[in-house]
Amino acid sequence: MIGFLIALLSGALMSVQGVFNTQVTKTTGVWVSSGWVQLSAFAVCLILWMATGRDHVAKLWEVQPRFMLLGGVLGAGITWTVIQSMSILGPAKAALLIVVAQVVCAYLIELMGMFGVEKQPVNMWKLAGMGLTVIGLIIFENQ
What we know:
Blueprint: H1 2-28, H2 30-52, H3 71-89, H4 91-112, H5 124-141
């Protein structure tokens, strides 16, 4: 249950953050806004790291495969794409498209066993759920 609630909180935070970042971009520009997002996130992480116990930073160099360290690069791309999509489409439509893309991509990662995730068999109920999500997207788009 706690995982479910945290996931809901994550989605809500992402939507609010996207709106905040889009508004900041109107004044500063996309790269200043994106940079601020990454810098302020780093500051929060640094403070929490110092407050909650200090895992060894040097352990990062033990991560294998090395490309897994590109999460921050992906984060910068996520920030930019969320800002752009919300600016162009509006928060609701952008968030819906983002969530659909996340679900489809995550399920493909599971099906193919990519990036160290345990490969899962095709599940017709999950495919049906994704289909309903896409139908919901079409309904939302054409209303």
